[in-house]
Amino acid sequence: MSIPNLAIIGDRINPGFKATRTMIEQRDFKGIQDLAKRQVQTGAIYLDVTIGPKGYEDYGLLSEVIQSIQAAVDTPLCFDYPHKNVLEACLKTYDPAKAGGRRPLINSLAETRWEIMDLMDIQPFNVILMASERLDEGAAKPNKRCEDVHKTAKRSAERLVKEHGLELNDIYIDVTVSTLVSDTEGLVRMALDAIESIGLDPDLKGIHIVGGLTNIGNMLPPVEFDGMKLRHVMESAFLTVAVPYGFDTVLGTPWNEFRMLPEDHVVLQTFREVIDLKGLDAMRRLRKLWANK
User: Which of 127, 159, 229, 237 has a Cα at 20 to 30 A from 91?
Assistant: First the structure.
């Protein structure tokens, strides 16, 4: 990774990846440990951990996975479940002493599942806050406007500081990065506007902004630009726009080559055009990118 001050939360301990799913199914803890080590060696500051649906069914396996990772690396872990009971099992297993005293990270808190913060009684943790949804008159509502994402982030951050003793540096705002090829509503543009808005807010100075970068290139064709797969170049295009706005943390694969693209790069130019379009116009412009490949 070659973008200064951009941190990465390693995302590979996830059954969404076929090789990892096989490791989990076969209880290949040595393989999981090797995967953890590789992510740390390539720059991960946290390791995101989920065993998928098995985490809801087999707390014992979940605990074994956590213990095996902590036996191999001293990097703090990020627990990727939105369910309080599963997170409780994770926090009861996690040993901060094996991570140099550093707190775990919970992914993902939201206004609609604030009961997760009750788990601070087990041990302190930092949080990834989903700002893509809000609590509105007791019901969950999606945020599809920049101002709603910003307001949700600010309201929730203030509550985390005042009620739970966190500092802004302990909080990561997830603005949700959508899949570009299916974005007919301009949600990628909205996310970028929200990143800029949050980054400019003096009351949120020091807070982190994170996103799952793998999403942006999902379903793109297997073509290459400059010797790199298009989906990886598109990730770099997103970062080229987002990092100057305040986006400082990636949930992604640490060994991918993230870089800032020059302004005349064809993928960056296409990205800038597509995010300002909606519906079929966006899809048509995007497809022109690889039409002659």
Answer: 159
Q: What are 124's two structure tokens? A: 């302190």
Taking only Cα atoms into account, the Rg of the chain, rounded to an integer number of angstroms, comes to: 19
Q: 264, 104, 267, 282: which is closest to 182 by C-alpha?
A: 282
pTM of the complete model: 0.95
CATH topology of domain 7-290: TIM Barrel (3.20.20)
Domain parsing of the chain, residue ranges: 7-290
- Blockwise average pLDDT, block size 10, the chain, 293 residues: 88 96 97 98 97 95 98 98 96 98 96 96 98 89 95 97 98 96 93 98 98 92 92 96 98 93 96 94 92 79
Q: How far is CA 289 from CA 192, 223, 230, 282, in A?
A: 21, 10, 10, 11
Q: Are 8 and 252 in contact (CB under 8 A)?
A: yes
